[in-house]
From TrEMBL:
InterPro entries: DCAF7-like, WD40/YVTN_repeat-like_dom_sf, WD40_repeat_dom_sf, WD40_rpt. Residues 1-24, 222-255, 469-501 are annotated as: Disordered. This is WD40 repeat-like protein. It comes from the Eukaryota. The keyword Thylakoid does not apply. It comes from Scheffersomyces spartinae. Pfam families: WD40 (PF00400). The lineage of its organism: Eukaryota, Fungi, Dikarya, Ascomycota, Saccharomycotina. WD repeats lie at residues 309-351, 427-459. Keywords: Repeat, WD repeat.
Length: 540
């Protein structure tokens, strides 16, 4: 993939060392200039309402238009706090908080390296701070005062080697719910693998290890249904999987590598047994992990296909369940469309968004020049690469296209017309592509990371106030349907205009391109930024 190639060509040889001493922090817009700023080397984090930093802060480009040039300083790794330096370029990450006797921060990192020598690393984040206290509850459990956390000491707990770069990592959603069970981590590459991160409970000083529990291969031989894969081995080199349904099972490493690669996936946060994957073979596959709830005893290590469907006309690049839904999911792909499916009625689908066409046949994306489709290209210029669903309102979805600095926000009640477009060009000063998007776990703020070396936070609240009050059906549009109580009928309005959001509320800059961004579990008080070979924790 092109975004992998960009990140693999970057190195950060100066960021070598240990014992970091300074934090990366978000800063808010200056009240004096209206400009925003960011800092990667301050010695203590700013509170959320601090506006003392302006665009002239070292490490902060001048976006205010008031002059002063651009002064940049980036602390090396050994001077950074809340920072982990890896030996290889990193691409994907996920950050969760395991609610045990005391909360444990777990971070998963995936490398990008050409060839067959990649790895997945699991970090534990140990919080520190001058005012951080441990509160002891009446039941004997403890919790940290997270307002006093000044930073994290990230330490590698476990790692495992994989052949191909990992496109996405996601921790088991049950870890944040306080359920008793193993620490499970899912990773997609040529197949979807699910690992159990475990420690010898008889020896609390023993190292952690990653044990592969599932291998979900997206093959379509046979009926495409009722396929089961029993995965009791820890690596693909010594696989001895069995099949008890239609189709063939992955019986060797070579056979697994012949299946269509998995591009992305989503682990349902309501029904923890369900995972959906997307693939380059135009399909989406819904899997049932067949595991019992709340216990590590009696796990079957067996997954079955609930259903598999052809979702797009070409490759499917990303897929997401809608907020708090076990039946509704959305997908985006190389055909440039965003589609919604209902597992209870797969005979119908709703195309929520397609790039509009101009009279000359060019494709037009809001706020970008017209693009002519070249069918000989591997990735169409209209392709949608990333998808993120709001964690607050299931009506809202965000997507970004290939080499695009615009994020398209869609209200599924109004198919075909973006309710807003986030303009990542920052008032025309940047043409850098956006690589990653992620909604805040509790609020309608969207986090982006891009080739401009920045992580930006955008305010997406009150979008419903900007929508037209009345709509009329579009000729030639979708007939629509009522899905789970959501009106998705094709609609438009003669006075409809797409709102442009062109100013972020907070920002953070790095020395190299930002390949991925993530929130700290359900708290959302910190973010993680992947840039070059490093993972940086940033306090909001």
């Amino acid at each position: 993939m092109e975004w992998y190639t960009r990140s693999s060509q970057r190195t950060s040889g100066s960021n070598v060392g240990a014992t970091p001493h300074s934090n990366g922090v978000f800063s808010q817009p200056s009240s004096a200039t209206g400009a925003y700023s960011m800092n990667s080397s301050t010695t203590s984090p700013l509170p959320l309402n601090d506006t003392s930093y302006n665009s002239m802060t070292p490490g902060v480009p001048d976006w205010s238009g008031s002059g002063g040039g651009e002064s940049t300083y980036f602390a090396p790794a050994y001077e950074r706090s809340s920072y982990f330096y890896a030996n290889t370029p990193l691409y994907c990450c996920d950050w969760t908080t395991i609610r045990l006797a005391s909360d444990l921060d777990c971070i998963a990192l995936g490398s990008y390296k050409e060839g067959f020598s990649n790895r997945i690393q699991v970090l534990h984040g140990l919080p520190f701070g001058s005012e951080m206290l441990e509160d002891i509850d009446l039941d004997g459990t403890s919790d940290y005062d997270y307002e006093g956390i000044q930073g994290f000491d990230f330490r590698k707990a476990a790692e495992i080697n994989v052949d191909y770069p990992v496109t996405k990592l996601q921790w088991d959603p049950q870890l944040q719910k306080g359920n008793v069970g193993p620490s499970m981590l899912a990773a997609s590459s040529e197949v979807l693998r699910i690992y159990k991160v475990e420690q010898n409970h008889l020896d609390p000083n023993a190292d952690y290890k990653m044990v592969q529990e599932y291998t979900l291969a997206n093959h379509i031989s046979g009926s495409g249904h009722n396929k089961r894969f029993n995965n009791n081995n820890n690596n693909d080199n010594n696989s001895n999987n069995n099949s008890t349904g239609g189709g063939k099972s992955p019986t060797s490493k070579d056979v697994v590598h012949t299946y269509p690669p998995v591009t992305s996936f989503d682990w349902n946060s309501v029904n923890l047994n369900i995972i959906i994957t997307s693939s380059v073979d135009t399909t989406c596959t819904v899997w049932d992990l067949n595991r019992p709830y709340g216990t590590d005893n009696g796990m079957t290590n067996t997954a079955s296909v609930k259903t598999q469907l052809i979702a797009h006309d070409s490759e499917v690049f990303d897929v997401k369940f809608l907020h708090k839904s076990t039946d509704l999911f959305a997908s985006v792909g190389n055909d440039g469309s965003m589609r919604i499916f209902d597992l209870r009625s797969l005979e119908h689908l709703t195309i929520i968004y397609e790039p509009p066409h101009t009279a000359s046949g060019h494709l037009k994306t809001p706020g970008t020049p017209s693009l002519k489709v070249d069918n000989s290209q591997m990735v169409n210029p209209k392709a949608l690469l990333k998808l993120s669903a709001s964690n607050i309102d299931q009506h809202y979805l965000a997507t970004v296209g290939v080499n695009s600095n615009k994020v398209i926000l869609i209200d599924i009640r109004m198919p075909g017309i973006p309710c807003a477009v986030i303009d990542g060009s920052i008032r025309g000063t940047s043409n850098a592509a956006i690589n990653s998007i992620s909604w805040h776990p509790k609020y309608n703020f969207l986090l982006t990371g891009g080739d401009d070396c920045q992580a930006l936070l955008w305010d997406c609240n009150n979008l419903e106030l900007k929508l037209p009050r009345t709509t009329t059906s579009q000729s030639g549009g979708n007939n629509g349907s009522n899905v789970n109580g959501l009106n998705t009928s094709g609609s438009g309005s003669s006075g409809t205009t797409t709102t442009s959001i062109d100013t972020p509320v907070m920002a953070y800059s790095e020395e190299l391109e930002v390949n991925n961004v993530t929130w700290r579990g359900e708290r959302g008080d910190w973010i993680g930024v992947i840039s070059g070979k490093g993972f940086q924790g940033v306090k909001i």
